[in-house]
Design goal:
Layout: H1 2-26, H2 30-78, E1 80-83, E2 86-89, H3 93-99, E3 107-112, E4 118-121, E5 141-147, E6 150-160, E7 176-184, H4 186-221, H5 223-233, H6 253-300, H7 304-335, E8 345-348, H8 349-358, H9 361-366, E9 370-375, E10 381-384, H10 386-403, E11 409-417, E12 422-429, H11 460-470, E13 474-478, E14 491-498
Parallel strand pairs: 9-11
Antiparallel strand pairs: 1-2, 3-4, 3-7, 5-6, 6-7, 8-10, 11-12, 12-14, 13-14
Helix pairs in contact: 2-4, 6-7, 7-11, 8-10, 10-11
Length: about 500
């Protein structure tokens, strides 16, 4: 039992950690994210800046010292001469003092004849590598090497002992003497370090200031968001008026515009719901009051026949209230459908209409109305919600049967126009029709045409319009062409949907 409890505790802890991780992932700080995108590149570029500064400082420090080293090399090269078969130097005191004028760095020089033998100077200065090309005479070259385990900068030059002036070209008969001057790197390092310090020390001062400025700029830049949040929090719960965008930055204007658009839609939805509830409550008063009156009357009656009449009237009022409630629920269901929650499918409009019409055959017999169905043999595929489309058709058939007099005709018709990719659903009757002046109002909720003695709630065509809008369908109100020249013009309600010819419908059982 204890083991089970421990496992349950571990599972609860794991689930709470998962919830916290998800919360951290879904709620990210805009301030922190902007700060990261600004500071991370800055902190990454700072070491790179130090490295570039070091390379540049070394280059700057080398240039003047290389010039000085070259001057010293030229002083020695000018003092090298050939006497007979030997190489001699005429370095006097001042010339030697030039080589050792710097007390910090050690200066070494070396002179070798054309056979590579040491003539004068430091023997430990290494000669240039054999794989290197010999530069032209009197052309100074530089390289790094080691003398007495210390790194040095070496300047060297070849001079032609047979020539009295510098020559670029030389032959195999030339006698080339090698003169080298080596200098340790202490002075160069000191200068480069001074340059680096002069550049980096201000950076250490500027970087914290830059971080503070970035922090201040972000705080000030995001302040309008905090002010907008404060203004929204101070609004009343029933205040759906647009948010004032007068002091909102340009970048936040689209967000405020979207919020205002959402508030406008929400306000319209709430007003619609309020009007719907008020209308529904008003419409429900009549059947409820009738039911109450008939029930009270039945309680006061003593004779069985009178009680029977009151109960029949009570059942009639109950059926009327039930129908009104069902239509209210159908309208609410149609209005609350969204593209994400709407169960759309490919269905055969012919099959749907035939099944719906069969439910109304008993009522058509009771009203002595000839209810017919016309459709092509081919399927008429459309994309829609099966339940809502059936509700639409039920309301159209109900209106047709209620407004068609006895011995009249009502027809449900389905056909398609493949060229225009349209599907048509029609319900026609031989009733009094609908005047053109009423076309703009008959789809309003609880609207009833004056002078009609047909019982109803006035919600049927409102439901039809809402479902048609959900399916992007068009509604047309026409006179029945089969009633031309007759006393009653009849009515033809045409619903136009998009034909979904690209989809294949399942084979019906009778076709299989």
């Amino acid at each position: 039992m204890r083991t089970l409890r421990r496992s349950q505790v571990s599972q609860d802890a794991a689930s709470s950690e998962a919830v916290e991780d998800q919360h951290r992932q879904t709620h990210r700080s805009l301030f922190g994210e902007i700060l990261d995108w600004m500071l991370v590149p800055l902190l990454l570029l700072w070491p790179l800046s130090i490295a570039v500064t070091y390379v540049v400082a070394k280059s700057i420090a080398n240039e003047p010292f290389d010039h000085a080293l070259e001057d010293k090399l030229n002083v020695i090269a000018q003092q090298v001469k050939q006497q007979g078969n030997s190489v001699v130097t005429r370095l006097n005191g001042p010339a030697r003092d030039i080589l050792h004028a710097d007390n910090v760095d050690n200066i070494y020089y070396q002179i070798r004849n054309h056979r590579g033998n040491l003539v004068e100077g430091e023997a430990e200065i290494p000669s240039p590598r054999e794989d290197e090309d010999i530069p032209p005479p009197w052309t100074t070259r530089f390289r790094y090497d080691f003398v007495r385990n210390a790194e040095v900068r070496i300047a060297y030059v070849y001079i032609d002992l047979n020539k009295t002036r510098p020559e670029i070209q030389f032959s195999h008969e030339s006698k080339l003497a090698l003169i080298q001057v080596a200098e340790t790197l202490e002075k160069r390092s000191q200068l480069s370090n001074q340059i680096i310090k002069g550049v980096l020390v201000p950076q250490f001062i500027i970087l914290p200031i830059a971080l503070l400025l970035v922090w201040f700029a972000l705080t000030r830049g995001l302040r309008p968001l905090a002010e907008l949040q404060e203004r929204i929090n101070q609004r009343r719960s029933d205040d759906l008026s647009p948010i004032d965008s007068g002091h909102v930055p340009e970048e936040i204007l689209p967000l405020v515009g979207s919020l205002n658009h959402m508030l406008d839609r929400l306000s319209q939805s709430i007003q619609t719901q309020k009007r719907f509830i008020a209308d529904a409550a008003h419409q429900m008063k009549t059947p409820l009051a009738g039911m109450r009156m008939q029930s009270e009357l039945a309680l006061r009656q003593q004779e069985r026949e009178e009680i029977q009449k009151s109960l029949e009237q009570l059942a009639k009022s109950s059926a009327s209230a039930t129908r009104l409630v069902n239509q209210l629920l159908a309208l609410a269901r149609a209005e609350n459908q969204t593209p994400d929650t709407r169960p759309m499918e490919t269905l055969d409009l012919t099959e749907l209409a035939r099944d719906a019409m069969q439910d109304w055959i008993p009522m058509s017999f009771n009203h002595r109305i000839d209810l017919g169905f016309e459709a092509t043999e081919a399927a008429v595929p459309v994309r829609g919600d099966r339940i809502l489309l059936r509700e639409l058709l039920n309301n159209l058939i109900d209106n047709a049967l209620n407004y068609t007099p006895a011995d009249g005709h009502a027809t449900v018709r389905v056909y398609a126009d493949e060229e225009r990719q349209l599907a048509f659903l029609e319900v026609e009757d031989t009733g009094p029709g609908i005047a053109s002046s009423e076309h703009a109002h008959i789809f309003d909720r609880f609207y009833r045409i004056l002078g009609s003695n047909v019982e109803g709630s006035g919600l049927g065509l409102a439901i039809v319009r809402e479902i048609a809008q959900q399916h992007e369908a068009d509604i047309a109100i026409l006179d029945n062409p089969r009633c031309a020249g007759q006393k009653m013009p009849g009515c033809l309600m045409r619903i136009t949907l998009r034909l979904d010819a690209a989809c294949e419908l399942p084979i019906r059982e009778e076709e299989a």
